[in-house]
């Protein structure tokens, strides 16, 4: 019997310039009245802290009668070690009435892990997705979590997952459960105005791939029927997710290149923030597939690559960049499973071609225009790395299951090899 039910969920949303000034009021609505002055943990990273946004938000929350403690050591591209540090800080400093995350996906994902582990017993690895971790589900409710993105791309403010590198295994994995979804997303486009060009490009490719992967995901009714307790947040492409993904693609077609070229364009920044929000509402329910599965080992096995606009103390392939590097070849692979959707997506992005290369060609042109690296070779990978990359991608079965066709190791090897150089 095939599936007849799809699910849809989303956080509360407050969008617009100045929205981040209202978080103190929002927290009172979420926490309720109390005779004790509520304590709030604000999670951010040092780069975002340097912009002054977290301090200003903390001050405005304090003016509403709440005590705020700031943890500013979230790591760009979190690791098991950085999450364990944040969890220990929160456990030692609690109890908390709510958590606020101010930053990119890394800070928001760190806050999700903190929220899980200050409300539930056990250790981080108990909750990591199998086979890396035990895949335990939370048993206790989580605290209200307000996510305030300062980058446009990750969609973490809308989703039920947090992603991390497990250093000893050199693999990227995550925690996935509906309770991790933030209670409220506060999207203030003004917070993204200081994003460097490469960060805008990388995060924007994450938006784009969120929309494309959810739009081309396996249709929800093509899965086997599930019992209620078997349902997961990623249920496959469905009519509601499609609506958000199409709108996101349309916005990106008009704003992406401008936002990278001219970061001072308020209109382009607002359109990118809307595109990121819409894509998050889509893929947070439909799911993502091959490009995201491939991104995990690409980011986890990085050697010496240090992109402009990111911290230079450690090598890094930023998440959105890692996702984009195999996207053209991945969508060439999946074309035959859903040709109409691939062609529609290419059209929404301004393409006019036909056949399997219609969408990949649009992506390559965009990536070149916004200075994304010219394939895996440019970020340090060789043909001899393909087997290791395939091994890492195959561990992401939760994502690969959402692809519109069955995916083998041989398929992935072909995608990685075709992604060594794009032009």
Average pLDDT rating:
94
From the alpha carbons, calculate the radius of gyration and give it in angstroms. Answer: 20 Å
**Count of extended strands:** 8
* N-C termini distance: 45 Å
* Structural class label: alpha/beta
The amount of helix comes to: 40-55%
Helix/strand layout:
Elements: E1 12-15, H1 23-31, E2 39-43, H2 46-49, H3 53-62, E3 67-71, H4 80-93, E4 98-103, H5 105-119, H6 124-127, E5 145-149, E6 161-166, E7 171-176, E8 184-187, H7 197-215, H8 239-261, H9 266-286, H10 290-300, H11 319-325, H12 327-334, H13 339-348, H14 358-369, H15 386-394, H16 397-400, H17 409-418
Parallel strand pairs: 1-8, 2-3, 2-4, 4-5, 5-8
Antiparallel strand pairs: 6-7
Helix pairs in contact: 1-3, 4-5, 7-8, 7-9, 7-11, 8-9, 10-11, 10-15, 12-14, 13-14, 15-17
What does this structure look like?
The protein has 423 residues and is an alpha/beta fold. It is built from 17 helices and 8 strands. It has helices at residues 23-31, 46-49, 53-62, 80-93, 105-119, 124-127, 197-215, 239-261, 266-286, 290-300, 319-325, 327-334, 339-348, 358-369, 386-394, 397-400, 409-418; strands at residues 12-15, 39-43, 67-71, 98-103, 145-149, 161-166, 171-176, 184-187. The protein has a 6-stranded parallel β-sheet with strand order 1-8-5-4-2-3, sandwiched between helices. Strands 6-7 form a two-stranded antiparallel sheet. The mean pLDDT is 94.
């Amino acid at each position: 019997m095939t599936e007849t039910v799809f699910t849809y969920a989303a956080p509360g949303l407050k969008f617009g310039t100045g929205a981040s000034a209202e978080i103190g009021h929002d927290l009172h609505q979420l926490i309720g009245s109390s005779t004790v002055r509520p304590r709030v943990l604000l999670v951010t990273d040092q780069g975002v802290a340097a912009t002054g946004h977290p301090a200003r938000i903390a001050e405005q929350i304090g003016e509403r009668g709440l005590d705020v403690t700031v943890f500013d050591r979230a790591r760009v591209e979190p690791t098991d070690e950085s999450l364990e540090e944040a969890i220990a800080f929160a456990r030692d400093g609690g109890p908390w009435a709510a958590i606020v995350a101010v930053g990119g996906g890394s800070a928001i994902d760190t806050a999700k892990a903190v929220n899980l582990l200050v409300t539930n017993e056990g250790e981080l690895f108990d909750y990591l997705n199998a086979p890396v971790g035990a895949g335990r589900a939370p048993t206790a409710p989580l605290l209200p979590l307000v996510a305030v993105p300062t980058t446009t791309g990750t969609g973490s403010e809308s989703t039920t997952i947090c992603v991390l590198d497990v250093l000893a295994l050199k693999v990227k994995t995550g925690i996935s459960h509906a309770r991790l979804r933030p209670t409220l997303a506060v999207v203030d486009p003004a917070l993204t105005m200081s994003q460097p060009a490469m960060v805008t490009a990388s995060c924007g490719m994450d938006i784009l791939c969120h929309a494309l992967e959810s739009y081309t995901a396996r249709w929800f009714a093509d899965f086997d029927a599930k019992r209620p307790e078997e349902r997961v947040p990623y249920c496959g492409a469905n009519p509601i997710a499609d609506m958000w993904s199409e709108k996101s693609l349309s916005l990106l077609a008009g704003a992406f290149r401008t936002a990278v070229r001219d970061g001072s364009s308020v209109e382009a920044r607002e359109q990118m923030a809307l595109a990121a929000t819409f894509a998050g509402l889509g893929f947070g329910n439909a799911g993502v597939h091959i490009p995201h599965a491939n991104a995990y080992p690409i980011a986890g096995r990085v050697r010496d690559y240090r992109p402009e606009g990111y911290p230079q103390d450690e090598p890094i392939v930023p998440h959105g960049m890692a996702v984009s590097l195999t996207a053209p070849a991945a969508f060439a692979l999946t074309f035959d499973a859903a040709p109409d959707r691939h062609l529609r997506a290419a059209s929404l992005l301004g393409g006019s071609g036909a056949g399997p290369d219609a969408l990949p060609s649009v992506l390559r042109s965009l990536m070149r225009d916004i200075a994304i690296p010219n394939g895996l070779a440019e970020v340090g990978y060789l043909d001899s790395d393909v087997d290791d990359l395939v091994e890492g991608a195959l561990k992401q079965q939760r994502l690969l299951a959402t692809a519109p066709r069955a995916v083998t190791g041989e398929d992935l090897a072909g995608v990685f090899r075709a992604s060594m150089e794009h032009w």
